[in-house]
């Protein structure tokens, strides 16, 4: 905040793995799946689900993304939180014509928020959240879990059609019509706790929840050691979020 000393997000060395305690009731009805990319939003979403005392399982996807370091981040986040974690491999040939999967495509750089949201960006991965949520629905229904948490956000960056409230609402309706659980009146609910929050608000919330943002990875084109580029859309939104929230990003400090 203006006039205040900068605050630092917790360093990985300061936090040990969270032990699953009695608050995580080991019954299926209390079970939820969190889609964990390894980024800032999904890490915050994971901790929100834990704060609600759900039995949390996390799912990540290897779909041939250029920024595969996010999968290692997801593993570290899940281990630190003490939750069961699965990495599902998806046939990479499904995802073409996206700068996130095709290294020959130019990654947008140095854009402001208005430019980012003016059109659907080349970093859009065709049908990605449709597929990921479908996997999560199957995972939940086969285990009797009740909810899916996804860190979709439509405020800071509305360019992705599969992160918007209308899409989530339509998918929820599909789940209610197309699953045994839904037809029998016990539908799996899709939770989007970050959908209306600015990036700075997400970071402030995460800090209250004790999220260790040094474990996360947001950059679309990090170097071989995982260092963020600072120029892609995701890096710029993250930097602005930390600045507005009054914290220093541990990845760039």
How would you summarize the topology of this molecule?
Blueprint: E1 7-8, E2 31-35, H1 40-51, E3 55-62, H2 69-81, E4 84-89, H3 113-116, H4 128-143, E5 147-149, H5 165-178, H6 180-183, E6 189-191, H7 199-209, H8 233-245, E7 247-248
Parallel strand pairs: 1-7, 2-3, 2-5, 3-4, 5-6
Q: Characteristics of this structure?
A:
alpha/beta; 8 helices; Rossmann fold; globular; two-stranded parallel sheet; disordered N terminus; 253 residues
For the residues shown, what is the average pLDDT?
Answer: 88
- In whole angstroms, how far apart are the ends? 17 Å
Percent range for β-strand residues: 5-15%
Largest sheet: 5 strands, parallel
Helical residue percent band:
25-40%
Give the strand line-up of the largest sheet: 4-3-2-5-6
Count of DSSP-assigned helices: 8
Unreliable spans are: 1-25
CATH topology: Rossmann fold
Number of strands: 7
Shape: globular
Which secondary-structure class do the elements indicate?
alpha/beta
């Amino acid at each position: 905040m203006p006039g205040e000393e900068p605050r630092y997000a917790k360093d990985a060395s300061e936090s040990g793995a969270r032990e699953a305690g009695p608050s995580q009731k080991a019954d299926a009805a209390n079970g939820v799946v969190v889609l964990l990319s390894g980024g800032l939003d999904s890490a915050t979403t994971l901790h929100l689900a834990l704060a609600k005392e759900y039995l949390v399982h996390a799912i990540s996807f290897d779909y041939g993304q250029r920024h595969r370091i996010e999968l290692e981040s997801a593993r570290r986040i899940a281990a630190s939180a003490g939750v069961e974690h699965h990495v599902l491999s998806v046939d990479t040939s499904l995802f073409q014509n996206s700068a996130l999967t095709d290294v020959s495509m130019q990654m947008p750089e140095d854009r402001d928020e208005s430019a980012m949201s003016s059109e659907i960006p080349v970093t859009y991965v065709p049908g990605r959240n449709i597929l990921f949520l479908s996997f999560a629905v199957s995972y939940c229904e086969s285990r009797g879990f009740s909810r899916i948490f996804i860190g979709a956000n439509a405020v800071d960056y509305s360019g992705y059609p599969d992160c918007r409230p209308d899409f989530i609402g339509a998918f929820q309706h599909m789940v209610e019509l197309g699953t045994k659980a839904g037809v029998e009146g016990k539908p799996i609910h899709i939770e989007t706790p970050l959908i209306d929050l600015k990036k700075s608000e997400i970071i402030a919330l995460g800090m209250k929840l004790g999220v260790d943002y040094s474990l996360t990875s947001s950059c679309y084109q990090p170097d071989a050691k995982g260092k963020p580029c600072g120029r892609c859309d995701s890096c710029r939104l993250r930097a602005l979020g930390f600045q507005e929230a009054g914290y220093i990003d541990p990845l760039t400090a």
